[in-house]
Design a protein that fits this description.
The chain is an alpha+beta fold and 106 residues long. It has one domain: 2-Layer Sandwich (GMP Synthetase, Chain A, domain 3). Helices cover 33% and strands 24% of the residues. It is built from three helices and three strands; from the N terminus they run αββαβα. A three-stranded mixed beta sheet has the order 1-2-3, with helices on both faces. A hairpin with a 3-residue loop joins strand 1 and strand 2. The chain is globular, with a radius of gyration of 13 Å. The N and C termini lie far apart (27 Å). This is 4-coumarate--CoA ligase-like 1. It comes from Prunus yedoensis var. nudiflora.
Length: 106
C-alpha cells in the first residue's frame, strides 16, 4: 500500500486493541495519488459511539504516517470463510461499492 509495504495484519492488530472495535478487516483501496491506501472495515462493539475520524486518529497515534488508515467504514460483520479467514476480496468489493454509492449521492 502506498508504495511502502503496510501489512494488513499489523493494522488489524492495532485496531483490535481499541476497546470499541469488535472485529476488523484492512484492505488496500486504489488511490490516484498513492496507488493504494489502507482502508478498514470495522465492526464496533455494542453501544460504541466512535466515529470514523476517531478510529483513524487512534491508528495514526500508533503507527508511522505512511501506515495510517485513510478510510474507515462501519459494517455489521466481516465476511469470513468457514475456517475463519477474512475474505478480503469481498471486503474490498463492498468498500468500493459503498464509496461509489456515496459519490452518486453527493
Amino acid at each position: 500500500m502506498q508504495n511502502l509495504k503496510v501489512a494488513p495484519a499489523e493494522l488489524e492488530a492495532i485496531l483490535l486493541s481499541h476497546p470499541s472495535v469488535e472485529d476488523v478487516a484492512v484492505v488496500p483501496l486504489p488511490d490516484e495519488e498513492a496507488g493504494e491506501i489502507p482502508a478498514a472495515s470495522v465492526v464496533l462493539a455494542a453501544g460504541a459511539k466512535e466515529s470514523e475520524e476517531d478510529i483513524i486518529k487512534f491508528v495514526a497515534s500508533n503507527v508511522a504516517q505512511y501506515k495510517k488508515v485513510r478510510v474507515v467504514h462501519f459494517v455489521d460483520s466481516i465476511p469470513k470463510s468457514p475456517s475463519g479467514k477474512i475474505m478480503r476480496r469481498l471486503v474490498k468489493e463492498a468498500m468500493i461499492e459503498k464509496i461509489k454509492a456515496c459519490r452518486l449521492h453527493t
